[in-house]
Amino acid sequence: MRAEDVKRFRSLLTALAESKGKQLSEAQFDLWWSAVADMPIGDFERAVQANFRLGDRFMPSAGELRALVEG
Asked: Is the separation of the CB atoms in 13 and 24 below 8 Å?
């Protein structure tokens, strides 16, 4: 991701967390960013959408989201 993707990233991650009944701290946003910053924003968005479709109740890890788009 690029610096200009931060707003979209935060929006997607916030929506994902809220759908699981969670709120993320600034430190958690920073940790997530460092874990997925090498992904294109489009891949991250596809992973979030795929997780929504799965209907899991629990917040996925960065690795679980990666697996949804990377196989």
From this structure: yes
